[in-house]
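Pipeline run #58 for the internal structure catalog. This entry was flagged by the ingest filter as a single-chain record with no existing model, so it goes straight to prediction. Upstream metadata was stripped on purpose; only the residue string is passed forward. Reviewer on rotation: M.T. Logging verbosity set to normal.
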Amino acid sequence: MKQNHPFHRVFLLVLFTMTCAATSSYAQPYPYQNPNLSPKERALDLCSRLTLNEKVGLMMNFSQPVERLDVPVFQWWSEALHGVGRNGKTTVFPITMAMAATFDTVLVEKIFTATSDEARVKHNQAHRLGTQREMYHGLSFWTPNINIFRDPRWGRGQETYGEDPYLTAVMGKSVVRGLQGPADARYQKLLACAKHYAVHSGPEWSRHRFNAENIKLRDLHETYLYAFRALVKEAKVAEVMCAYNRFEGKPCCGSDRLLQQILRDEWGFDGLVTSDCGAIDDFWKDYGHHYSQNKTEATSQAVIAGTDVECGSSYGSLVDGVKEGRIKEETIDRSLVRLLEARFRLGDFDDPELNPWNKIPDSRLCCKEHADLALEAARKSIVLLRNEKNLLPLAESTEGLFIMGPNATDEEMMWGNYNGFPLHTITLAEGIKAINPSATLIPWKRDVQQQVEAAKDAKTVVFCGGISPRLEGEEMNVDEPGFKGGDRTMIELPQYQRDILAALHKAGKRVILALCSGSAIGLVPEQQSTDAILQVWYGGQAGGQAVAEVLFGRVNPSGKLPVTFYRNVDQLPDFEDYNMEGHTYRFFRGEPLYPFGYGLSYSKFIYGKPRFADGKLTLSVSNKSKRDGTETVLVYINKVGDTDGPIRTLRAFQRVDVAAGSTQNVSIPLPDSAFEWWDVKSNAMRILPGEYIIQVGNQRLRINRK
């Protein structure tokens, strides 16, 4: 048969058409559809084929599909603060503040590896069900929150990893590694996001108009930016979210100093920047910053400064911005290429069969392994604050044990905020009764006389008190004394709880306070009205089991406070004062109720004399008790003669398991970066020579670094 026969040509045309139809979703007529090209090459090619309207449609959190080019829909906004959030049934881990109290970075990375497994399963299910257009079903997760928790009044502090920059940085890096997957993988597992950049730690009520100005350069870099720099430079976080507030007069999402000079020029960030939700509207609306005249000017200013994605829908006005000459289309292209490159790294345009993350089985969702991780985290997070006359641990057969309090049977309190929904939640009461079925649960009422009367036959009362995520959190409408807009105006327990605790103590009961909160509580009178206090945070789906196991001695408490517990707000500077003097253990010169790093054990640990050589700190840790335990060794450093710097600052830590009656020799790396300090000569962070004091427990070691 001749090759140019008409029938042959028709046959080939039909065959080609059928082949294209069968593989149209993953055909490669354009370079951007070729998975063998780099994500950057593909992003540049696709950008060149889009109209202006199509471009801006891709730059909002609900990224519109472009059907003519087979560009699928994409959701930039998903949540995974402590497990996949707002997307049905998932494993709910303890809140991040509780994770910080574990001082266990390996555990945190495991938690977020489990979280990213569940996130991929949810995403794959959404594709099968055709629900990928719905919110929170995407692969871009706006976590971790690495703002410094500088003041216990901030309601969103529960979302952070505490008040220390180093602890926040190392925990944040573990989160990013767990979410994004191995750095050398062909496809990225998820996109993690460092938020809220920058100088954002409350109050909630003024965040849309607040101007963080006159911040000392040292405070800015040594405290507020420390963790962001670590996540950008070391963890290669994919996204950064700019905050609501202004910084030095400009909204953070319009700050060329934050987004260009520091983030990209100094740190070399090559990822994307997203706005917080509605933050661009804050530029120009009446309740906001009064920075821009209108929406078109605001959106143009944001993109020019470097905000690539908007959580909102105002970026549609960028089309008018180009027409009016406020912004060049090439500037829009710069942002769009960053977004597209991130999507190509995820495999968003490729055959799902090429991507191993699409093959994670549905059985990974809410599996036993993840449930065990949630329990382990809850166990390790509990901080024993008070244990008079060694009341704890209780015998499992303790008679006359009563349970009461507003949080005893509250499932939702256990979940924290930005949460998922577990298959089952073990409440505090359920956990206690699982070990001691004879324990009596008293229905909760705020009436002091009724509660004391109901407990008249009790010998020991476990009071499940504190506050809840319904009182502290993000921009809330709360009508309770001591709370304002999600924040707190005082840090003590609600008065009715204090009164009941005092009455129980007066009635001769042994009182154990299981304290639920996302941050520090002022507990001055409770030093008299309680015999033991456990800080149990919002413990996630297994929190009640973990608390019970600690109460009855099945688990030896090992958590340490990642925040200072002040006595009251009188010890604190003004809430809106962002200079660090007086804030956090690093600059607080008063006498706290419980200091940062505090936490008792059922064991007794003794530290040997520390030594420093060859970049390592060595010491012994002895367990002078009859119970196995875990001690977290915290290593603080301060520079001799540095009168403007922190009193001391954490630069290393290590959890050490020590058997009863034994001694462990511990070696903790202290690399050059541990001695990175503020250099007043260059106005920058530098590894500086000089004399330093290393503090471990009550041991102090003076060294001279040349």
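catalog note: Residues 105-129 form the longest helix (25 residues).
catalog note: The first strand starts at residue 62 and ends at 63.
status: ready for reviewer M.T.
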